[in-house]
Each structure stands twice: as C-alpha cells, then as structure tokens.
Design brief:
The chain is an alpha/beta fold and 343 residues long. It has ten helices and 13 strands. The mean pLDDT is 86.
C-alpha cells in the first residue's frame, strides 16, 4: 500500500490499533508518512508504557535483574528480559496529537454481562488444584487408565487451567486432551439453567449464541445440547463457508434455536443473526479482548432488540475465570481511552 501514489490517504477502522497500543504506529505512519519518528522503538519510548518480562515464564522483572524471581532463570546475553507494551503512557494523548482524527460511535456500548458463578465439580477441582500446585494432573485415557498430563511451562499451565475450569479432562487415543461427551461440567449444568431462564422471562423460546474459546468444549457442548433436545448447531473454524451459510440460514429461519461457537470462528464477517437473537452466553472468554468484542458485535449491532438484549458470563469460582474477566475489562477500558473514547 505504501507504493501506491496518492494525494490523500484516509484510514477507516473501528479497532485501528488492534488489541495493543503498539499497533497504532503502522496505520498512522501510513496515513501521514514522516509524521512519526522513523524508528518504531523511539516512538514506543515516547508514547508507550512498557514492562519487562522473563522470556521463559513471562513474570514481570526489572531491566537490571540478574535472575527471574518466579522460575529462577538466570539472564544472559541470549536469554535476557523481553519488553512488552502494556498500553499508552497517557491514554488518549497520542490521538490528540494527530493532525486529523475523528471517532464516532454508531451504536451504544452493550450492557455489561450478568455473572453466574458456579462451583466446579469435585473431580474438576482435583484436576484443577493438581495443575495449579504441581503443573501436573492425572486424567483417564481412552482405555480408562489414569495417566499424567504435564504443563511444563507457565503459559501452558495457564492454558490447561483455563481448560480444566470448563469440564473434566481426558486423553484420546493419540494422547491429546479432550472432553468426553459425558464429562462432568458445572458450566454445562448452569448453561441449561440460563437458557431456561431466558425462556421463562420472555414467555417464549429465546434464541441464543453460546461462546467459548475452546473448540473442543464447543463440540461437546453442542452434542450435549442436541442430545437433550435443544435445537443446536455447532460453529467452529472447522466449518466451511458453504456450511456456515447453511447454519446461519437454519438459525435465522427458525430451524435452530442455539449456535454454539468458538470465539475466533464467529468474530468477523457475519451479519443477520442480531435480527432474530438478542441473547449471548459466555462459557469462557478469549484472552484476546479484541476477539471477544468482535464476537459480541455479531449480536450487539444495528438491528438487535436493544431492550431485550442480555449477555451472561458463566464463571467458575476460584479459577482463572475471574482474573481473566477483570483483566479483559481493564484492557477494554484502556483501549477505549487510547482511541479517545471516555466510556
């Protein structure tokens, strides 16, 4: 795009710096060549808030630390702390410095999600606490034999902990983690109650889109709902474009009441669901705030019944769920401030 000759350049985007303030440099440098420092890192020094992290476990460290206080990695020339942009030093100041910047919200912000807090089952809790304390837990494989799964890095441990909060884990024949169709899950019990309450409050069957960041859990959720008599379709990244159009038609034309979707697969390029649906349930959120926002906007957009709209987070008590939600809320607030928005 930089090679295209032009007298004027206009950038149009609702989320123009993506999920992190560091993404603001490229679009501004394209719209106004020469306005910013030619050095991206000099621009970061001027505008961005940066923290240092251990390259192994991503714990916060100081630039002059010799060793990580969490994993005890000794820093060397090849293994030194890495920098991470956490936001803008003075949120909103950068856009105010630009020659021309307009931000218009065509639609109000969605109402906050209601929170349904559940206690995970004893078997889930045992797996969760094993992973939390030792980075290892015991699960049953496809032959019913208990075998260990190990999360050898903190980032993997975090992913496993978030997965364990959804349902009881198992291993398939290839040693991959999965959820059995009959896995114990406090969230699936709560989901049924949430959907039934939607119907009771409305006095009729209410359609809903049910999101999770786990494709594996989306599959078992859809199968369990179908087995229980709920008219449900599954929407994940494995579903092709033709099949997606068919699923959408089933939902809009009242051959299905529920879509169970992985967040990443239903975050862009879909319109029309909002005209027949005003309910969203989150079994889990993505740790990418932008994906969550884009997924919600498949329903919370022009054409939705705003008065009837509701979204619900099903949260597992004493798990990473709560911390993830609070961090996402803080990220969204910071991102809006960086774009010059106040609420």
């Amino acid at each position: 795009m930089r090679t295209i000759a032009s007298d004027r350049r206009i950038g149009l985007s609702g989320t123009w710096h993506g999920n992190n303030f560091s993404g603001a440099y490229a679009p501004v440098d394209w719209v106004w060549p020469g306005l910013l420092s030619p050095s991206y890192y000099s621009w970061l020094d001027e505008w961005a808030e940066v923290k240092m992290q251990c390259p192994k476990c991503f714990a916060d460290v100081e630039s002059d630390d010799e060793q990580c206080g969490r994993c005890y990695l000794t820093f060397t020339r090849k293994k030194r702390p890495i920098s991470s942009v956490v936001g803008e030093k003075n949120p909103g100041a950068f856009v105010k410095s630009l020659p021309c910047y307009f931000r218009a919200e065509p639609f109000p912000q969605p109402p906050p999600a209601l929170e349904v807090v559940v206690d995970i089952t004893p078997d889930q809790r045992a797996q969760y606490e094993d992973l939390e304390a030792q980075a290892v837990t015991w699960v049953r494989d496809h032959d019913g034999i208990e075998v260990p799964i190990v999360a050898d890095l903190p980032i993997v441990q975090r992913q496993r902990l978030r997965t364990a909060a959804l349902g009881e884990l198992a291993l398939d024949g290839e040693g991959e983690i999965f959820f059995a169709d009959d896995c114990k899950s406090a969230k699936l019990v709560a989901l049924r109650g949430v959907l039934d309450e939607f119907d009771r409050a409305a006095g009729r069957k209410e359609k809903a889109v049910i999101f999770t960041d786990s494709k594996r859990f989306a599959r078992v959720t859809a199968r369990r709902m179908q087995a229980a008599g709920y008219r449900t379709v599954l929407w994940t990244g494995d579903v092709g474009e033709t099949a997606r159009e068919r699923l959408k038609a089933d939902f809009v034309e009242d051959r299905a009441d529920y879509i169970v979707a992985s967040i990443a697969s239903l975050s862009e390029g879909v319109d029309g669901l909002q005209r027949v649906c005003s309910k969203v349930v989150w079994l889990s959120r993505s740790e990418n705030a932008l994906l969550n926002q884009q997924s919600l906007r498949r329903i919370w957009r022009i054409g939705v019944d705003q008065a009837a709209f509701a979204q619900v987070d099903i949260i597992a008590r004493r798990t990473l769920d709560d911390g993830t939600l609070r961090r996402l809320e803080a990220t969204q607030t910071r991102n809006r401030a960086q774009m010059g928005l106040t609420a």
